[in-house]
Amino acid sequence: MPGLIEDYALIGNCRSAALVGRDGSLDWLCLPRFDSPAVFAALLGEEENGRWRLAPSEAVEQVSREYLEDTLILQTTFVTASGRARVIDCMPLADHNSVVRVVEGLEGHVPFEMDLVMRFDYGNSVPWVEKSEPLVLTAVVGPDRLVLRSEVATHSHDQHVGSRFSVQQGQQLAFSLTYQASHLPLPAPFAVEKALEETAEQWRIFAGRCPDVGPWTALVKRSLITLKAMTYAPTGGIVAAVTTSLPEHLGGERNWDYRYCWLRDATMTLLAFMNLGYFEEAQAWREWLLRSVAGNPEQMQIMYGLAGERRLQEFELPWLSGYEGSQPVRIGNAAALQHQLDIYGEMADALCQAVRGGLPRHPRSAAISRVILAYLEKVWRKPDEGIWEVRGGRQHFTHSKVMAWVAFDRAASLSDTTEEGQARARHYRQVAAKIHREVCEQGIDPALGCFVQAYGSTEMDASLLQIALTGFLPADDPRFLATLEQIERRLLRNGLLLRYNTDSGCDGLTPGEGTFLVCSFWLADVYVLLGRDQDAQNLYERLSGLCNDVGLLAEQYDPLSGRMLGNFPQAFSHIGIINTALNLHRAQCPARDRAQSG
pTM above the 0.90 mark? Predict the structure, then answer.
């Protein structure tokens, strides 16, 4: 059985990533890319669907783990009656696609057991396994091959590869598992110790560029490393999560594939990188964005593959039982074909923030923007599936209309100073004004004076916080303050925000899910805008306190059971950690400056 979602740690090489449990079991890994079929899929099924466990063979009395400082190299320490030993897990930042696991004796003489269950195609295909050398083993299915190199003898049994050995103080035993195309010659062995040293150095150089963010620097740095690990280095695309089908409600159907790149993440991701001085990463993300959306604006999607692929066909894997029985297990994401108006605003805002943040203007961005805005001007009055990608039919979602306003507002601010550019700017402002008037007329509950989820609805939605965060209205506008009051009254659960009330049936799915963590970060950001700095800090500390022992957050959290829910780790959540910390830090800087000058 898989562990709790919060019991996993992430390792990765900026092409793919693995999840390792506290019990030493590597239960999820897709190769050669984040979105490739999994070779270890026990996370969504059973151990026979693929896993790699490396742990003491006797009872474990204590487990602790941490990342090697400022790296993504995981260290798990096991204490048994016989002594103390450490397992070091890493995916080297190298030209090969490998997982390295090292068992290190720290004290006494600890017996270990390895159980390697290699399965291709999400746990469905059992490979042909054979030894090519005494300590080298290969596993082949069609076009794919895994190569295991170990410093201890292994044996095959019942379609498992196992080993029993002991490690004593000062001893290290290394294992490496490398992916390659099966038609190629076997890859040359690499020096594990050197690979670890070089990878640690690369991560530390990256993390060392992070500026001081006051008491939240360590949290921000860990989230930056996590976002970098979720970046597909060849293209600059950033996946929303490294997993698929981790449930938003245990045992339910709200299970989605997040191993793709959402346009919706664009603005917040750019802000996170640029505000911390990571312009190379910001520029790579913007380049991915402009390549992906190039083409007919009517065909612009809400998400794309790692290299900008558009066909993300959704299908189900019936042979996987699902995380804690949560079915179906889905691959691909049908929401890629939905009509969501907010993405046009997200893109315009991202391009605007890039210029304001100091990135040079992209030669193609202005032309792409003009084509997209011409299309948006024709369709912004239409209903859509909205930010939460509902499957219960299109509505006139208020947030979608607000983001359509953002698109024209930002485009007007970016227009050049030529006569033609200024004419376009005037036109964009006129369209923005029309959208603004309509939202303020039709997106409000007249009885309560607050904005609502959709025109004619009485439901609340946490996305309405973006009304203030985007500048659609000032945070102290009475209509927004009434909206904030209703959001706090109706959507807060144990101090954390739901996205919306799933009992309303608006999303076409069975009711029930956890609190959506990025929404609570938005709430903290709104508190900062309103000068409620202590409320913002209290909420931020509550949210950051939900991180697991190695600083990772999932998409959602259930405050009743105290468990993480949804795909893991979630880029949106870690972007929230970064951007809200920056907002708090900026809010506190003037106060500190005044105190010092006084």
Answer: yes
